[in-house]
Amino acid sequence: MTNDGTENRKTGGLRDQLRWDVIRSTPRYAYLVAAVAALGGMLFGYDIGVISGAENLLKAHWHLSAGSEELAVSAVLIGAILGGIVGGRLADRVSRRFALLGLAVVYSIGAILTALAPSLLLFDIFRIIVGFAVGASSMIVPTYIAELAPVEIRGGLVILQQLAISLGIFISYVLDYIFFTAGWGWRPMFAAAVVPGIGLAVGMLYMSHTPRWLAMQDRWDEADEVMARVNPRSKDAEMELLREDLEQTKRASFRELLRPGLRGALIAGVGLAILQQFVGPNTVLFYGPTIFGYAGISAGSGGLIAEMVIGVVLFVFVLPTIVLVDVVGRRALFYFGLTGMGSMLVLLGLAFHFGAASWGLGVLAILVVYIGCYSLSISPLFWLMTAELFPNRLRASGASAATVANWSANLLVTLTFLSLVNALGKDVVFWIYAGFAVLGIGFVRLLVPETKGHALEDIDEYWTSGRRWPDRGDGATSASAEQVASPG
């Protein structure tokens, strides 16, 4: 027993040393690719966050009822569902790179049209167009980064997207506050998204296609060149794995994800997608000033200041995730974050049950911890897992299904929040969300694998071999398989 423990410590130490060696030796181009692609995440974050500060201005401008207000807030989510449906096919057809380039143009044009909208109907239509870009890019960005990242630091690089999403949300809150206090109204809030849109378009002109997509087009020489640029240490091994995978699975169909074995990947991806929304984070991100108003915090500039605090927390708590995700693993972060979120939702329900106005800034403190736990766990990890859960040949289809489920759940929560509050009360609504956090812990324990340190090419064998990772002979895989073994 002692010898085994000593050997495990030595193996873990060697693995950690190898990881830091990889970080130091990874070409700067790999980090540049991730940073440029993450601008798509910034646009995603900006366009879903901007509505929070504009909500009350839109309500006053067009005299919105509760139903029309919910629709105006949710319009971007309707478009996101449509974008999620076609995003995978678009990424396979025109390439991940050109898809992001085209979506950057949609983001930019949509921002201008939304800012100029002369009526509520056109505003909703233009927000749906922007939402299409949000939905498609939300799955293409992590796929693009994952297919270009060295396996040892893949988690951290993919989570750069979530860092960019959080930064986009924070920037939207700051600009909302600036434009609100300057008396410029809601139109500049939406127009500002054109700046990162142009940045993404220009940046993608200079990026590479992924080796995976090039190999799918039989452009092996180009795939080899790109792999050499981003992962020279293990280029030959990675290319061999990629070649074997494509040779064995040239004919791929979404129906494969419905078969026993691979069905587990679909259940895990879609389940995480739904749980990420049913724990209620976007009620805070979309209706923040309204919730703060319930607690007696000014719904005007005071509410926007409180929302900026939430934006800072959302951004800051992604930073430790980038480091921890490839050290402690995905599942440990899921457990920690969901436990914290559930606890804070119970407290929030109690606050509103006994009178949140008397709690004052205590409500803000609860929401800060809640959003911090969300940003540390299920928020970035869901998007990472959409890039890791599915076999290469089915990644676009599987990620698309998970993305559609995510945006559909988001739409359902956003469209029903105000109505549920009126029907059930604020306390009951937040306790319902807490119940889903508890369900999430059980779901991760039973159905979500630990993908830390495993090649994307190995996920197929994991699902089809009784949920066990293949042994590559490095001593790490078997240990990881033991850690992720779960009942059933």
The structural domain count equals 1
**Topology-level CATH name:** Growth Hormone, Chain: A
Determine and state the CATH class: Mainly Alpha
| Share of residues in helices | over 70%
Q: Note the overall shape.
A: globular
Low-confidence segments, given as residue ranges, are 7-12, 475-488
Please tally the helical runs, counting DSSP H or I stretches of 4 or more residues.
23
How far do the termini sit from each other? 28 Å
- Number of extended strands: 0
> Cα-atom Rg, whole angstroms?
22 Å
CATH 4th-level superfamily: MFS general substrate transporter like domains
CATH architecture classification: Up-down Bundle
Output the helix-strand order. HHHHHHHHHHHHHHHHHHHHHHH
Salient structural properties:
79% helix; 0% strand; globular; 23 helices; Growth Hormone, Chain: A; mainly alpha; 488 residues; disordered C terminus
